[in-house]
Amino acid sequence: MGTSSQKFAIQVEGLHKAFNGKPVLTGVDLGVPSGSIFTVVGPSGAGKSVFLKCLANIIPPDAGRILFDGSELAFGDRVSQLEFRRRCSFLFQSNALFDSLTTLENVALPLEQTTSLPNKEIRKRSLEALKQLEIDEYAGHYPAQLSGGMQKRLALARAIVTQPELVLFDEPTAGLDPLRRNAVFAMIAKYQRQFGFTALIVTHDVPEALVASDRVALLNQGRICFEGTPAEFSASTHSVVSDFRDSAAALQRELAVIRTADA
Amino acid sequence: MFYWFGRQTLQVIFGIGDYSLFTVKAFCALAKSKRLVRRIVSAVHEQGTVCLPVILIVGLFTGLVLGLQGYHVLSRFGSQGLLGTLVSLSLVREMGPVLAALMLIGQAGSALAAELGIQRNTEQIVALETMGVNSHGYLVVPRLVASLLVFPLQTAVFVVVGFWGGSLSGSLLLGVDSGVYWSAVQRAVEAQDMRECFIKAAVFGVLSISTCAYQGYHSDRNASVMGARAVSASTTRAVVFSSILVLVADYIISSFFV
Amino acid sequence: MKNTKLELSVGIFVMLGIAALAYLTIQVGTGSMLNGDTYLIESRFANAGGLHTGSTVLLAGVTVGRVEGIRMEPSDYSAIVTLRVLSTLRLPTDSMASIKTTGLIGDKFISLSPGADDTYMAAGSRITMTESAVDIESLIGKMAFGSVDKDKAQQETK
């Protein structure tokens, strides 16, 4: 660590994970610089979600080390696990909102259960978080009464209310239309600057991710096969990268072949 | 065949061990849980206030039936005077704790299993964990503490209403002198019986609520069913297992007291 | 607000439950308990069948004690019944204890009949004048198959 000029928020070395003997991650090495937006892209089934869940220790990895803020995470140890979870938030693909609690209660819950703040302070902070994400007028509503975009914002409000250093995003744009996708990435970028957390995003929406993030990595078949800036990603001649990046062109070529066959 | 038997046995042992661990873990989380009182109050609401009408109705009718049946059996021997004894002892020792527990399993236990099952299904439980919230402490502990309080209270309500039911059918409809009935009730029930009654109620409470919570909490354990099916399967298991457990525990506790 | 309503309903439920609990433990549960100081006396019966721990001890129809324990005396094969009676009750030494039945097949209880002595029984002393349980089965048997000999049915111990 000391030799590295860059400070990493989270660093992964040789991460392995297999399900029922079927390898999903086969040695992932990655360093996420502090205070950056880092995007991991990759085709479906490449193990992106599993990778992120290993990081958040929802799934324990089979082998490999995870360094958080320079110190190794011992997931067997409850104290270090709690410490990590206090400083890190996870945004689920499904949002995982508490559907029987109101919007305000959803945001207040992590504060209520993990801090000893007085109730008034919790209410103030929760309302503030809602206000920042412009959903404070829905404080008394239930998650099911909100639109998809608002639910996403609520989930983000709940993630940032504890002032985490690291936020992990699992497919934040899955199932959203392009405009909404842009809005979500803009939202992440905006609040990342505002609160200064490190954002690690897993997605397969390449164009938006390239614009919004500081660094990009490509996860394919259980390993990282590219890592660099968005500019480097765009310029890369790596076959998997170019396949993935230029999928539209490939589709065009494929369709052209089909059309000529029809003709 | 033997393999199958061995595997099933091991599975049962594993299940029991896992369930015990779950309950112990929940009680250990008691100390770490924050803002517990409010959660307990809402759990008391879930198991108490919400289920009170059922307890009242079932208690009343149990008493009525006991009065009716008891009267006809006792009148064969000309000892209708013992009706109060029969009604009160069967209510206090057996019917009260067991039926109240079964009713609470049916209403509060199944709701709890389904709620936790859905929360598991929609990743809400995992979300709690990633926030650093102890999901046992947040979801299970308040329910368990509430059950320790609520089950004895519900049983007491059940028994008192049952006494009234017995007096209604016994003395109002069938003509046993109500003074004879009530004095028999008072003479028959002893401190020992009350102890048995409330120990049973508290044990049933912890057993059934922890079983329901366990089934809901681990509704994703069964690999053969997924999603909504998994929730319904775990709710069914919760109700069936906890009802069986209550009856088994009832026999064991009774055997200590007799 | 929603919260206060919840608290109110929970409060009502808990109060109701505690009221039922209190009624049961105070009114019913202790209805048969002995209030105040007690002492133990023993009595010997030829036959204590049907009597059990907790059976009532009545004097003039009033509950004055309970059966504390029953054991067998190996020397003469009689049953020794320990009674716990209220200290306020001072029994003359020549009092008599008899086992009686409520109704035809009801519970057995011990009925005390005070004697006329000037001296009173001390704690731990033994009532010698006892009357054992009437064996209803043999009584019925005699009624069915022969004459009822009342003197024999009610055996008296010395």
What's this, in brief?
The complex is a heterotrimer of chains A (about 260), B (about 260) and C (about 160). Chain A is of the alpha/beta class and about 260 residues long. Chain A has a domain at about 10-95 and about 165-255: Rossmann fold (3-Layer(aba) Sandwich), CATH 3.40.50.300.
What does this structure look like?
The complex is a heterotrimer of chains A (263), B (258) and C (158). By secondary structure, chain A is α/β, with parallel strands linked by helices. Chain A has a domain of 183 residues: Rossmann fold (3-Layer(aba) Sandwich), CATH 3.40.50. Chain A has ten helices and ten strands. Chain A has a six-stranded mixed sheet, sandwiched between helices. Chain A has a four-stranded antiparallel sheet with strand order 2-1-4-5, covered by helices on one side. By secondary structure, chain B is mainly α. Chain B has nine helices and no strands. Chain C is of the alpha/beta class and 158 residues long. Chain C folds into two domains: 31 residues; 116 residues, no CATH class. Helix content of chain C is 27%, strand content 32%. In chain C, strands 7-1-4-3-2-6-5-8 form an eight-stranded mixed sheet, with no helix packed on it. Chains in contact: A-B, B-C. Chains B and C meet through helix 2, helix 6, helix 7 and helix 8 of B and helix 1 of C.
